[in-house]
Write a structure and sequence with these properties.
binds magnesium ion; binds aspartic acid; alpha/beta; eight-stranded mixed sheet; about 40% helix; disordered N terminus; about 450 residues; 14 helices; 18 strands; six-stranded antiparallel sheet
């Protein structure tokens, strides 16, 4: 891989959907950008709501509903456009993109496909970035729009494409790096292009990942993720109001939190950051003064218990087969089938004649969204008896040296006594202990657990 020269003072700033939701939000985000001259590259999500509307359009619907959704998208973007100092400059371009959306969604109503979905959905980021450039220019900032698809090369797994970081590094060095000296560059999160040049997406919430990948490719000193909460908390404050902000957290712990459902960061975001040791700051664009969380390579007294994450809507597959008794290669066969269906296994426990597992459902922009297809079930059923349980919740306790410390049992399991624990995973990672409970009991489990571990 073409190693990027570290530009240790440069910062990539990423703003999520709520931070570019409307004219006011975009201006607050512009304030955040301009407050730090080290920010040279800005990565944006689509304006809040737009991606959901585009995904709905991509699923195909009848004309009336389609027109309603198209109007909604137009309304959201025009509410920003109309308030720009010089709206005429980009009105044509926004109109052209809106026309594209109308045309593509009509095609989707006839026959939808994952490639078409990605093409459609990418318009959200294309529009938000065009608008944001004008917000910056209105403040006399030398700002420039950059089509990230020129550098973000991916495979052709539409809806969940995998970036090619070697190609990205080379292309970003050649095409993006020189621009950063000339202007404040604004580009799209979430989208990329596959070898034939068709548009792909990195999975829902993928803009964080884009920012980290670009940060890595350019060798920047920090990636700032601006969202609508001032940092990462010990658990979701909406579930437990006593949750506390974590000021500084190690990469591994934060990665575990993201993977296990803490919504603040996209789970893949930290991969490039860890790989290249780039600190990631998470803060709120609504209240930048409130500070945030710094995710970095820290070893300063890591606590035994760090946080609690909750992920809902988990599906548990239990596979039973008497052939598994003393068999060899059964697990390999099961995993083969899952891999062919592009399923990443999340939790797993095994016994002599059965396997219980959950599927990793993070991300995918795919139409319908369910990973549990009939063809997968049919194929698995030819091998073993399959049981499916839905609506479970995954509770993950994130910490340090969990599988090596004593006292974990007393602190954790005492609280869990009144509940039905459907599955437990513990011991593989020293950073987490996680278990499944019935979906409707999730909050009742998390509250006393948080109280016991953190309050
Ligand atoms: N706009 C995309 C989404 O809503 C990507 C992102 O926001 O990160 O999933
Ligand atoms: Mg987002």
């Amino acid at each position: 891989m073409n190693q990027a020269v570290p530009q240790n003072s440069t910062v990539v700033a990423k703003f999520g959907g709520t931070s570019v939701a409307d004219f006011e939000a975009m201006n607050r985000s512009a304030d955040v950008v301009l407050a730090n001259p080290q920010v040279r590259l800005v990565v944006l999500s689509a304006s809040a709501g737009v991606t959901n509307l585009l995904v709905a359009l991509a699923e195909g619907c009848e004309a009336e509903k389609r027109n309603y959704q198209l109007d909604e998208i137009r309304r959201i973007q025009y509410a920003i456009l109309d308030r720009l100092a010089a709206p005429a400059v980009i009105r044509d371009e926004i109109d052209r993109l809106l026309e594209n959306i109308a045309m593509l969604s009509e095609a989707a109503s006839l026959a939808t496909s994952t490639a078409l979905t990605d093409e459609l959905v990418s318009h959200g980021e294309l529009m938000s970035t065009l608008l944001f450039v004008e917000i910056l220019r209105a403040r006399n900032v030398q700002a420039e729009w950059f089509d990230v698809r020129k550098v973000m090369r991916t495979d052709d797994h539409f809806g969940r494409a995998v970036p090619d970081s070697a190609a990205l590094s080379e292309l970003a060095q050649a095409q993006l790096q020189p621009r950063l000296q000339e202007a404040l560059v604004v580009t799209q999160g979430f989208i990329g292009s596959e070898p034939k040049g068709r548009t792909t997406t990195l999975g829902r919430g993928g803009s964080d990942y884009t920012a980290a990948l670009l940060g890595e490719a350019l060798g920047v000193g920090r990636v700032d993720i601006w969202t609508d909460v001032p940092g990462i908390y010990t658990t979701d404050p909406r579930v437990v109001p006593a949750a506390k902000r974590i000021d500084k957290i190690g990469f591994e712990e934060a990665a575990e939190m993201a993977t296990f459902g803490a919504k603040v960061l996209h789970p893949a975001t930290l991969l490039p950051a860890v790989r290249s040791d780039i600190p990631v700051f998470v803060g709120s664009s609504m209240d930048p003064a409130a500070g945030g969380t710094l995710v970095c390579n820290t070893t300063e007294n890591p606590p035994l218990f760090r946080a609690l994450a909750l992920r809902r809507k988990q599906t548990l597959l239990t596979l039973h087969s008497l052939n598994m008794l003393h068999a060899r290669g059964f697990l390999a066969e099961v995993f083969n089938i899952l891999a062919r269906h592009n399923i990443s296994v999340d939790l797993i426990t095994t016994s002599e004649v059965s396997i219980a597992l959950t599927m990793d459902t993070t991300g995918a922009t795919s139409v319908g969204g369910s990973l549990l297809t009939t063809s997968l079930l049919t194929e698995l059923s030819s091998l073993c008896r399959v049981e499916v349980e839905e609506n479970l919740a995954l509770v993950a306790i994130i910490g340090n040296q969990l599988s090596r410390a004593c006292g974990v049992g007393k602190e954790v399991f005492g609280v869990l006594d009144p509940f039905n624990i459907r599955l437990i995973c513990y011991g593989a990672s020293s950073y987490n202990l996680c278990f499944l409970v019935p979906g409707e009991e999730a909050e009742q489990v998390v509250r006393p657990l948080h109280h016991n571990l953190f309050e």
